[in-house]
Amino acid sequence: MSLTKKQRKEIRLYIGTLLDEECGNCEKKKEANKQKITSRLFQNYCIHECPLGKRLQQLCAYLEGETNIAQEKRGRKTLGKALKIKETLHEISS
């Protein structure tokens, strides 16, 4: 199933909302700041342990998959056009 432009936009907005509302109010993040834990070390928690972090990764991977599919389709179209142009040039020069 391919996402529409509107669906992709809604997912990106949802990701932004989650980051603002959930990650911005994260108690573990506040505690890490109090303990002077560097953000780089804390990101490890977000990436590997936080349920919300895992959900965000899934949403991003879903969007990336859609992007890769779209890029692949564009690539095939471009290749097809290039082959047609090459054939036309070959016919003209023959």
List keywords for this structure.
mainly alpha; single chain; 94 residues
In a nutshell, what does this entry contain?
The protein is mostly helical and 94 residues long. It has helices at 5-23, 27-34, 39-48, 51-93.
What does this structure look like?
There is one protein chain. By secondary structure, this protein is mainly alpha-helical. The chain has one domain. It is built from four helices and no strands. It has helices at 5-23, 27-34, 39-48, 51-93.
Strand tally, please?
Answer: 0
Q: What is the approximate shape?
A: elongated
Distance between the termini: 44 Å
Using only CA atoms, what is the Rg? 22 Å
Specify the biggest β-sheet: none
Q: Which parts are unreliable, with pLDDT below 50 for 5 consecutive residues or more?
A: none
Question: Helix/strand/pairing class, anyone?
Answer: mainly alpha
**Mean pLDDT across residues:** 77
**Count of the domains:** 1
**Total helical elements:** 4
- Approximate strand percentage: under 5%
SSE ordering: HHHH
Question: Percent range for helical residues?
Answer: over 70%
Could you outline the blueprint of secondary structure elements for this entry?
Blueprint: H1 5-23, H2 27-34, H3 39-48, H4 51-93
